[in-house]
Give the backbone structure.
Amino acid sequence: MLFSDQTVIVTGGAKGIGAGCVRVFHAQGGNIGLLDRDQQAGEQLAHELNQQRENSVLFLPCDVAQFDDFEQCIDQIAEHFGQIDSIINNAGVHPAATSIDDFTIDQMQDLMNVNFLSTYAGAKFAMPHLRKTKGTIVNISSMTAVLGQHLSTAYCATKGAQVSFTKALALEAGPQGIRVNAVLPSNVDTPLMREWAQTLDDPQSALDRVASLQVFNRMATPEEIGRVCLFLATEQSSFLTGQAIEADGGAALDY
Ligand SMILES: NC(=O)c1ccc[n+]([C@@H]2O[C@H](COP(=O)([O-])OP(=O)(O)OC[C@H]3O[C@@H](n4cnc5c(N)ncnc54)[C@H](O)[C@@H]3O)[C@@H](O)[C@H]2O)c1
């Protein structure tokens, strides 16, 4: 058990990569503060896992772009479980493919709030709790932060901001015993991925093409990304900080 008697907060933990993280940390004995704006999916996952281990998951409905609510939720989780050992800033959205001409400044500001400022806020609000436990922060960025993505200037910029923030915060937080790292997945089989495919003419061939980008000819599972996060959140990675871990199944090789 790599995470017993410890507590992790997972934002966007009801589905996709976040749910993968929740399941992986829970299976390793962790208590989970699950935040998501999808109340039904959040309650369902919390119920399932609490049946396995009583009072191990606290779900709080939360939009991480509502920063005052987000801070209250973090404090409530700390009070409920007595400590916070890690936060995984995962909640994020990917708008449909759009040219820069068609994506308004207001849309960009909203996307920054959800994808980047929530990461900044989650780290900022968790810091007082993490100082007590010498805890960890894991930010879910994307390979698009370093590779770009066609018709996704806004999304890529939010994901790149997470990487820069991770490195700068690692410098500041390291002397306080807190490690900060980012995970950059390539393609992961999640509801977000499938919803994106549905916006295209031929969803199945789009999913096949995306799978073929990895050398394993498949996407990652959410649990595979969850295991990278577990590694970064525990003593297994005690000498790593400020890193942008490319969890890409070899997708960037042989360009
Ligand atoms: N799926 C991929 O291939 C992929 C690749 C690289 C990076 N990512 C990143 O991983 C993260 C998760 O993506 P996913 O594919 O699991 O998405 P998903 O849509 O499948 O799941 C995201 C979860 O976050 C929640 N959420 C979204 N906005 C929220 C908000 N404002 N407040 C609270 N909860 C919110 C959703 O309700 C959902 O439960 C995102 O940051 C995304 O950019 C995904």
The beta strands are 7-11, 31-36, 57-61, 86-89, 136-140, 179-185, 244-247. Residues 103 and 132 are 42 Å apart (CA to CA). Residues 11-12, 14-18, 36-38, 41, 62-65, 90-94, 114, 140, 142, 185, 187-188, 190-193 surround nicotinamide-adenine-dinucleotide (CB under 6 Å). The first helix runs from residue 16 to 27.
